[in-house]
User: Fold these one by one.
Assistant:
Number 1:
Amino acid sequence: MNEKIHINITINGQASNVFNDNTIADIINTYNLQPDSIVIEHNQQIIQKENWSKIVLANNDKLEIVRFVGGG
Amino acid sequence: MGDSKSLMVSFNSILADKYYKQNYLEYIQNIKIGIAGMGGIGSNVMNALVRSGFCKFEIIDYDIVEYSNLNRQLYFLDDIGKYKVDAIFDIMKKINPMIDVIKHNVMLSSNNIQNYFSDADFIFEAFDKVEYKKMILEHFGNTTKNIILSSGMAGLLNNNEIKIRKINSCHYVVGDEISAVNHENMPYAPRVLACASLMASIALELTYKVFNLTNMDF
């Protein structure tokens, strides 16, 4: 069994510490975010919802979570 | 028409004489602006951009102007019942008669979004519903277009929380990202216009920076 190690990523510009086996979906669950109200950019690429659980985060990754609320 | 033409000349010459160098004005006049939604955000973004000298627009909205819109949207009493894309075009022509506006009186959906904004340099997301806001970023987000999105401008409080958040070099979110419009928290002119003004300011800031980089004698 592989041992979990911490990696450093950036979430919305803030330094953050996550495990090396964390996927984008894990981060969304950790922050308790509503999947239907957010868009994810991973290293400046928009990631569609169906791929959130397929992408494992790597050291120095940049994640941007754009949370939309109604009104405009 | 003669009057419109002379008004146009004077509007552009005022901009060139008083506010901009001629070559920067010509540069922004050729920038293509897409605006998705012509409500509180879209109508006020367009107002700021037309007054700032932008001329080329592609606008989308399916809705008509209602009385309840007048508390924050740019329309007037005699616009009620008109399609928003028609009403805003008529209002904007009173500022600059020579603006070039492609109007789409349609509801955007995942089935037709590929028909719009194909040559836009900037896309302003000005919809009210979350699913349509998301659709703009998801559909256009992996292109080189500048995308300016709105999120969180309801209510009367915390006005200093309306801000620009840069997601990357071409994606920006404006708003407090918290205050959703709902029955307890309605949209009012001050915060909606603050949000729209900050959104429009990004088009001026980015074009100004690009223009200066490519025209060092500016």
Note: Chain B touches chain A through 38 residues (CB under 8 Å).
Number 2:
Amino acid sequence: MDSEGRREEEIIKALSAHLGEGRVIEASVSRERRVFITISPEDLQGALRFLSEEQGFRHLSTITGVDAEDGIEVIYHLNDGKIALSLRVTVPKANPILPTIVDIIPGAVLYEREVHDLFGVVFEGHPNLSPLILPDGWPEGVWPLRKEWDIKRIRRKLKGGKDG
Amino acid sequence: MDEARFEIPIGPQHPALKEFEYFKFTVEGEKVVDVEPKIGYNHRGIEKAMEDRTYIQDLYLVERICGICSDAHTTCYCQAIEELMEIEIPPRAKYIRTIMAELERIHSHLLWLGLVGHEIGFDTLFMYVWRDRETVMDLLELISGNRVHYATNTIGGVRRDIPPEMTDEIKEGLGKLEERTRFYKELCLEERTVAQRAVGVGVLKPEDAIRLCAVGPTLRASGIARDVRKDDPYAAYGEIPFNVVTYDGCDVASRILVRCDEVIESVHIINYCLDNMPKGPLRAKGMGRAVKPGEVVSRVEAPRGELIHYAKSNGTNKPERYKVRSPTLGNIPALCKMLLEGYIADIPIVIAGIDPCFGCMDRVSFVDVKSGRNWVWSHEQLRRYSLEWYRT
Amino acid sequence: MGIVDWSRRKSPWLLHFNAGACNGCDIEVVAALTPRFDVERFGMLLRGSPRHSDILVVTGAVTLQVKDELLRIYEQMPRPKFVIAVGACACSGGVFKNCYNVLEGVDKLIPVDMYIPGCPPKPEAIIDGVLKLLKRIGQREG
């Protein structure tokens, strides 16, 4: 238990050292095997490459999008076989662009599409960002998991889309 | 394409209709050269709906993400909310959660084994396995009152007890299940049809399994010993001795063997729980607490693999954000890899090999780059094609 | 009319369609085929084609992605045809009310002749529902 607690802290220190002074915006160990780290979008690829290639975090469980106050959070849920490390970046809602990570972790290919479907985040360099889970004919610009698209508004838009 | 492209009007639905294929295959003669998965027929909008419901209401919604592994979802969910509330559930509840989870694993793996039998034309196997599976359905109903959607988990613990009076009946049922599963495993190892259809088919090399972030029995059949119950223990798993089953074959046959052995492991886990069940309450005290603002990641080993939930709370009685990633989605990139360079006739069994959600391959479409021909087949047509192909 | 009708009633051919269900109802529909419940003793068979089916058995709340397909299948079935909604979702949307990608029930799209509620209904209940439907068809025509 103690050695694992140290491992969680070690990872944060190693990432900090790798990215440089102050580049890790926020970091916490909420309990054993649970680490949360916030970094800037510019550091995303560098951090992911470091964590997956040098720290053993090769497994990506999924990518979560969150419509937060200061923009859209994109959280990469990594795993090294024991520790769940959630790496967060925030992009502005008006211009939600991130580089793809499929060249680093090929298993990310569908998760990026899903975040794109639900939040409108564009992953530059992704080989195929076409809709994954939304139905054919879903209207452009309706990102259902953004807060401004509540169910009533979505339904109105879907009806309107049919008639209009 | 300079040749005339035509669509062969096969399939139950008229070809002029807008199909929704789950997989679009580009083929060259008999071989698959490209795969494009198209999923989403089952997308209901659950994550959005969860933001509009209270935590208790969401428990019943989350349960119905999947009827085959609903207990995995409720376990994962309850753990997430309990962590946000900083509650530890009582020991007896942990053991009961473990028992229900393992009973679900048994029902799910046997269900799958029967379907695999059906895929390779072995309908007798399907009928026998599903008959025997009724034993575990009876146990689930005995404990929870329902065969599907047991609703035994609640935030803070469990809603139903497994009293000592039930132990004999459960153990008797488990004994039968273990015996039958050993029989089916032997059958699969000896049957030539199974060997022909499953050995060396749907190969997923360990390196690809890791790169593509595969999970569950699919991953373990490529020799990778990852299992959330062992790596990131939850419920009572941290105290229970059990084996993580792996096989090195990297093929469909290995996936069959992994699941058979996992059923037997599950039987042992349940027996251990029954023999070592702690006494005490079923639910944590002080449940009136609000859910503090925060975020958690909850993980569970569902029958199909790693299930992960992410929850963000904002201090109200409704979640700010709830994210679910089911194991099947995690295996689709690996599945595509397995299908490439394989034969059309192997498609049904390879897809079945990852144990996808039930209706996941209701229809498949093909484009042959050599002839320019494209066509749509129903699952049944593809299955029959495979049976024919292997007969000759 | 008499003999064809009788054989239809005594030996209905069913088409099972999953309209975005969680699979809970689907596995109980399939379980109805297996030895414990053995729906085939009633002459009921699960067919693959709408053109040969009398009864469409639908599970799920009907997602937007499948609704066109469901409609087409229904239109392809020859008359007389009947629709059974299996499970709370197919009956009325069930727990998926107010989900953006869901129609909330089969009868929002096509007429339903029998509702079998449950979440999921047990195989016995499903068989019972089909038999009740057959009896009603018989009474209507008899």
Note: Chain A touches chain B through 37 residues (CB under 8 Å).
